[in-house]
Amino acid sequence: MFIQRVFTINEVNNQEEYGVLVSKMAKIAFILLCHKDPEAIIKQARQLTATGDCMAIHFDASADADSYQRIRQALDENPNVTFARKRIKCGWGEWSLVQATLNAVEAAVEDFPRATHFYMLSGDCMAIKSSEYVHQYLDDNDVDFIESFDYFDSDWIKTGWKEERLIYRHWFNERTQKRCFYWMFQLQKRLGLTREIPKDIQVQIGSQWWCLRRQTIEAVLEFKRQRRDVMRFFSTTWIPDETFFQTIVRHLVPEAQIRTRTLTFLMFTDYGMPLTFYNDHYDLLLSQDYLFARKISPEANELKDRLGKLYAARGVDFKISAEGPSLFRFLTGRGRVGQRFASRFWETESTLGRDRELLILVCKKWHVAKRLMGRIKQETNIPAIDYLFHEESTDLPDLGGIQATIGKRHRHRRALMRMLFDYFETDRLAICLDPSSLDLLHDFCGDRAVTRVLEVQCHFSDEYLTGHAMRIGLAGEKTPPDTLERILPTIRKDIVHESDRIRDAEFENHRRIREVDEMDEYIDPLISFLSIGPEAAQRIAQTEHLFAD
Fold it and tell me: Using one digit for the tens of pLDDT, what is the confidence trace for 233-243?
């Protein structure tokens, strides 16, 4: 396919040689879905548009408003950057992710009429080839790049639900509204409220990181306008970002014009989580048969700088060996059989993440902490997990087995926390800890992540301490009263000692609230702990029956 195009000076931007762009056919409109790190987004947009391409950005409506304004102020003057006309709140597994993508795509189609390709990106993606190579690759391959495997016959879904994603309606978010999500599923299942897949649609599944030609994108948007029945169907399926575009493109485009692969390099760990790339992966990434890579660590500044310079370079000769997946399997396999002779380069950085915040609520009365944490979740939407290092039954997602037992959670504490940050796709996570876990506090507070500790000190009656002694096996139903009288002061002293040890540790971001204080005295510690305003802090402080036993 040949498209004759005339480039203006504005399109060329800062190219040293005008003739270089005249010879190009491909002009990419990058579709960026993001929700954090405005400085990284600004830098990414400037790098990718500096060689004449375009970008349409959807910034999650539930994210920080100030961050969005910083992005707009920095990029509004860039003629090659546009924004989705309508921002929506996005949630993992929801239709909102597809709708946000469609909103950004529609803005790109309207504002960039000369764009020939539309490439899906996230804020964690970076180019691993030069712009010159990327454009030549697309010129040489006049096809759509999108994973689209048969939903029922392929083994793309390894474990968990398959048919249930489609034949039942899903209105709630599985991560933030877990109880409602599974209650609605069980209700539909019990009542037999299944539905049929649209007759002429063969559902496909694959990665959401695609690159589609303009005529394909325009056909998808026209299909969206014409087929309301299909749109209604996908809007209540579960995880539709893995099925919607994959199905519609296969429905509209001849098979010979589809390359069933993604141009974005990503791998997954044994626990099913996306592999993160660090500074020492530069040579590995360049040798892969892909144009972009995901996920680049926020802390891999050297890698990001090198890749940024590479994108603007010319005349680079790339030696493609594509050994990444097999090398990863080899190294991890040797580790499993006890023959690993050096640390795996995927594991060289064990921090939770310099740009992440771990909020630790410390309280001896677990029911008090759970009440307070429940209110914090309501007011802030920060993902929060109760006593995961103390209660085997804590509600945790399936992370491949690392979360299965208390012992595994303790042994792999940092890996577990990193996986939880990734699972919830957040930079802020809250957990509850018992004050006896000083080792965990030292470990997390010594990390490069920002760790904040809020200690909740409670009053302990003799009745409560008696019950506590029974729960931990120091007393039973038939323990004589005089024995209890002797052990209760010791238990009380131990609890006080745990709190003293926390204070003596002098953690940098340690605040306290005490049951004996007035409610107004809770507000400043809550503001500091959660980085919220005084009104939200006051609502949390007013949690009903907070200290009731």
Answer: 999 999 999 99
